[in-house]
Amino acid sequence: MPYSLREVSDAVESLWPIAGAEGWDASGLIAGHPDDSVSTVLLAVDAVAETADEALDSRADLLLVHHPLLLRGVTSIAADRYKGSILTRLIRGNCALLAAHTNADVVGDGTSGVLAQRLGLVDVAPIVPHTDPEAGIGRVGRLTEPLSLGHLAQALGKILPATATGIRVSGDYDSMVQTIALCGGAGDSLLSTDAVTHADVYVTSDLRHHPASEAREQAGLGRGPALIDVSHWASEWLWLDVAAEQLRQRLPDLSVQVSEIRTDPWDFVVTQ
Ligand SMILES: [Zn+2]
């Protein structure tokens, strides 16, 4: 028996309550009717042409993504523009679209929580806690044994799916680190928080020149972490397997698949 999209949305709400989302976010149902039937779900980080095609090819009734397709003002979903093209194809193919974004970042088994677990961190707490102290943005915790910064970066390289741009590090390869702050996705807004400035290293994505340079200059004057910059997509993709298993447990008759397509936008680098 298929579930209704309403039942799947209810399971999503129980796992990743929308109340936990940031005010600017646009998580929730993007396309599809709550009365639609859902037997198969495909999980992906991004709703892009390739993952939409994968959902339709695998006859998924729902594409559940991390990043909302419609986050900022949209005045057209004409099918010759990419967002309209994706939505048109999904709707014509009877595939709903639902996003669980910052509401899935903040929970214990959310994007940052899963990365902390995969690194084996202990005494883990959010960088910015919510009223529920288990929930919040980012995570900080300790490795059970100190590790060199270089070896931590290598360990991340094994944990995360491969991407063209790899892993960038700012700091001394041989310096020993134990307190790790991390934030799946773009986390430069947390660079000046106490939890990050007191950590030995901060792992996040999309670090730009000025925030990274300023954080390292400040570290040179006293307190501040080494930086590890990983692929945004890779840092959040790890969460999909955990999310899929949680959905299977809540809705045992649901077929839940995880997209293996790399939606990191970078294709190659040239080393000098
Ligand atoms: Zn993200």
Keywords, separated by commas or semicolons:
Udp-n-acetylmuramoylalanyl-d-glutamate--2,6- Diaminopimelate Ligase, Chain: A, domain 1; 6-stranded mixed sheet; binds zinc ion; 272 residues; alpha/beta; 33% helix; 2 domains; 5-stranded mixed sheet; globular
Question: How do you describe this structure in short?
Answer:
The protein has 272 residues and is α/β, with parallel strands linked by helices. The protein is built from 9 helices and 15 strands. It has helices at residues 5-15, 49-57, 82-92, 102-105, 111-118, 149-159, 194-197, 209-220, 232-250, and strands at 3-4, 28-31, 37-38, 40-44, 62-65, 96-99, 122-125, 128-129, 136-137, 139-148, 168-170, 176-186, 201-205, 226-230, 255-258.
Walkthrough of the structure:
By secondary structure, the protein is of the alpha/beta class. The chain has two domains: 3-104, Udp-n-acetylmuramoylalanyl-d-glutamate--2,6- Diaminopimelate Ligase, Chain: A, domain 1 (3-Layer(aba) Sandwich); 106-233, Udp-n-acetylmuramoylalanyl-d-glutamate--2,6- Diaminopimelate Ligase, Chain: A, domain 1. The chain contains nine helices and 15 strands. It has helices at 5-15, 49-57, 82-92, 102-105, 111-118, 149-159, 194-197, 209-220, 232-250, and strands at 3-4, 28-31, 37-38, 40-44, 62-65, 96-99, 122-125, 128-129, 136-137, 139-148, 168-170, 176-186, 201-205, 226-230, 255-258. The strands form four sheets. It has a six-stranded mixed beta sheet with strand order 7-10-12-13-14-11, with helices on both faces. It has a five-stranded mixed beta sheet with strand order 2-6-5-4-15, with helices on both faces. Strands 1-3 form a two-stranded antiparallel sheet. α2 packs parallel to α3 and α5 crosses α9. The radius of gyration is 19 Å and the shape is globular. The chain starts with a strand and ends in a 14-residue tail after the last strand. The mean pLDDT is 96. The structure holds zinc ion. Zinc ion is lined by residues 66-67, 185, 232, 236. Zinc ion binds next to α9.
